[in-house]
Design goal:
Distance between the termini of chain B: 37 Å
Number of strands of chain A: 12
Helix content of chain A: 25-40%
Number of strands of chain B: 12
Radius of gyration of chain A: 21 Å
Largest interface: A-B, 48 and 46 residues
Strand content of chain B: 15-25%
Structural class of chain A: alpha/beta
Order of helices and strands of chain B: EEEHEEHEHHHHHEHEHEEHHHEE
Shape of chain A: globular
Oligomer: heterodimer
Number of helices of chain B: 12
Shape of chain B: globular
Number of helices of chain A: 11
Largest sheet of chain A: 8 strands, mixed
């Protein structure tokens, strides 16, 4: 088994991605509207936002499960349009709910062995060895191979789903809320596993979550989405310490914390507008504590944040710090 | 002193077959006063939801209630039998984890709230509808007179959970049991729902029992906390004290597993191993196979919950609680 393919850079570039779904009324809902992202191999990019912001749609477009209307997805400089088998192999998806993503009638071994066979990655004794090796990589005993998903807990199932994803030696894993269906203590172990796979296999990881704190624990870069668009992006530490979009600030303040009675920041009012509706100007203005007249009128563009290299924010006030109500 | 709004004494639940039985909830006791809150926290399968269901008399048939007393405002209520509904009606309510499957898809949100006001509180139809709109407004649904006509599928996850809470308080209960009510929600909506429950607790003088696997969530809403492991409370006390200085290794583990927004960039630590199967609990302290501090004594005998320090509410079930480091 050559691991060379796993160590070369997997430069994922998403440019101006636009995905629309047809709605029952005959209209179209823009789930992703001009999303651009990039990710180097061995890096973790966190994609954060509330339900309905389009983060899962972006994941599905990157893995080829939905066809974008517009925009380009490139892996290692090659444009992914009609994907070859090798290209499909290169990007793997881990789903949120490990109780729904595994076939209850198939043993772990049969799932993994089939992948190795179909993609001609290993045969005979080699296939057997590789199955055991995959179990080791995700922290399960080799004895687990001959059992059905029902024999496993949620955390163990998620490990099996991850083994399935890495079995085909992908360049990039897209994990869509991989901890949301799990207990906090189990979710922590899954995060640690991703962290190890990233450093051991040099995998790129796109981690999707509604919780910015979770993403901040392992990501190198963060992109925050609101209503189909990226509103802030940059290196993890910078975005976390000094968010330049009020929405990022609000997401940070909403995460429960241990060292105080309750989070002090102002709560986000209401919820995201229903799909298909988009407020005028800055789409966030009706929930934003900082909004002024200009926000209701003009939509801000995603632009470089003054004096902060590598950071972009779509806010008329991105030159300000958004401290929320909490002293830092 | 008036009796606690809810008191549970020595609750024991078990499962099994003709040959062998094993405990699922093993001697749980706690109490909560009107206008106050307690959280029960632990991993899936520790018995926390089952405890709530037993209080609400909703345990599945395969689970036996072996012992235990539940007192509502000082009065004992039965845990099984024909009078379980009559003794709870209008006095305690429960909010479940998944609002999608708890709401009836063929009735409007307002009709479902009004039905409770009508049946439990005996309001006439028109008055019940008015009351439903008041309640939907109370739980923070904007434009309630119009949204009351919406069906569950027209509402977001957060709105549905607000409707569930409106239904729960429509019967004007003294006790509100919450079983992971925010687990299915985004963090932003979770924060809103926690604020709402906290406000209702104070405004309606509810005794709130809140169950979650997330210590940070419990920490942000409950005054008291009980940490549950393998069917027992292993640590309890005022939430801020327990969070600041856990005395049980399991509490420390739960605390380190939380991704803390104040600690951006720290990788959370998982607790090694898994919760034991209730039918095959290890001898002695059930946490010993996963515990960093365990020695022979922990394997030999189970440890009872005992008060530590001056505060009689602060108790821990660990032989080596003095070894547990500050987080």
């Amino acid at each position: 088994m050559s691991t060379a393919s796993q160590t070369t850079p997997a430069n994922l570039v998403v440019r101006d991605l636009r995905v629309a779904y047809r709605s029952t009324g005959g209209g179209a809902i823009l789930a992703a509207d001009g999303v651009s992202l990039s990710l180097r191999s061995g890096e973790v990019l966190g994609l954060v936002g509330e339900s309905g912001c389009g983060k899962t749609t972006v994941a599905r477009a990157i893995t080829g499960l939905v066809t974008p209307e517009q925009g380009e997805i490139e892996l290692d400089g090659a444009r992914l349009a009609r994907r070859s088998r090798a290209q499909r192999r290169a990007i793997q998806l881990v789903f949120q709910d490990p109780f729904a993503s595994l076939n209850p009638r198939r043993t772990v071994r049969s799932v993994l062995a089939e992948l190795l066979k179909v993609h001609a990655l290993a045969d005979g004794a080699q296939r057997e060895r590789r199955c055991v090796e995959l179990m080791e990589l995700v922290g399960l005993p080799a004895g687990a191979l001959d059992r059905l998903p029902a024999a496993f807990s949620g955390g163990q199932r998620q490990r099996i789903a991850i083994a399935r994803a890495i079995a085909v030696q992908p360049r990039l894993i897209v994990a869509d809320e991989p901890m949301s269906a799990l207990d906090v203590s189990v979710g922590a172990a899954i995060l640690a596993l991703f962290e190890r796979l990233r450093s051991d296999l040099g995998l790129g990881l796109l981690l999707i979550s509604h919780n910015l704190a979770v993403v901040a624990a392992i990501c190198d870069h963060v992109a925050v989405m609101y209503l189909g668009r990226v509103v802030e992006t940059g290196p993890r530490g910078d975005v976390f310490a000094d968010p330049r979009h009020p929405y990022t600030r609000a997401l940070l303040d909403a995460a429960p914390r241990l060292r105080r009675d309750r989070a002090e920041g102002p709560r986000l009012r209401e919820e995201t507008p229903p799909p298909g509706t988009r407020p005028s100007g800055c789409a966030f203005h009706d929930r934003c504590p900082r909004a002024e007249e200009i926000c209701r009128r003009d939509a801000p563009v995603l632009a470089a944040v003054q004096g902060q290299p590598g950071r972009l924010a779509a806010c008329h006030f991105s030159h300000e710090q958004h401290r929320g109500g909490r002293p830092r | 002193m008036s009796p606690a709004a809810l008191e549970v004494r020595d609750l024991m639940l078990s499962a099994g077959d003709h040959h062998r039985r094993w405990p699922l909830v093993d001697g749980v006791s706690f109490s909560v006063d009107a206008g106050h809150s307690i959280g029960i926290v632990g991993e899936s399968g520790c018995g926390k939801s089952l405890t709530l269901r037993a209080i609400m008399a909703l345990t599945p048939g395969a689970i036996a209630i072996d012992a235990g007393t539940v007192l509502l405002g000082g009065e004992e209520i039965p845990l099984r039998g024909r009078r379980i509904r009559a003794t709870r009606r209008g006095r305690m309510s429960m909010v479940f984890q998944d609002p999608q499957s708890s709401l009836d898809p063929v009735h409007s949100a307002g009709a479902q709230v009004a039905e409770i006001a009508r049946r439990v509180r005996g309001l006439p139809r028109a008055a019940a509808w008015t009351r439903a709109i008041e309640l939907l407004d109370l739980v923070g649904i904007r434009d309630a007179p119009r949204r009351a006509h919406d069906y569950p599928h027209q509402l977001s996850g957060g709105m549905r959970q607000r409707v569930m809470i409106a239904m729960a308080v429509a019967s004007e209960p003294q006790v509100l049991l919450c079983d992971e009510p925010t687990t299915a929600l985004d963090v932003t909506v979770q924060a809103q729902v926690l604020d709402l429950l906290d406000a209702l607790r104070i405004q309606l003088r509810l005794a709130l029992v809140f169950v979650s696997h997330d210590l940070a969530v419990v920490g942000s809403i409950c005054e008291q906390v009980a940490v549950m492991y393998a069917g027992r409370f292993v640590e309890c006390g005022p939430t801020l004290e327990v969070l600041a200085r856990p005395r049980h290794p399991y509490t420390l583990g739960l605390r380190q597993a939380v991704v803390d927004a104040d600690d951006g960039g720290r990788l959370p630590r998982a607790i090694a191993g898994e919760l034991p199967d209730p039918s095959a609990r290890p001898p002695g302290c059930p946490f010993h196979p996963r515990c960093d501090f365990a020695d022979d004594a922990c394997v030999q005998a189970a440890v009872e919950l005992a008060v530590v320090g001056d505060d009689e509410r602060r108790a821990v079930a660990c032989l080596h609680s003095e070894l547990v480091p500050a987080p």
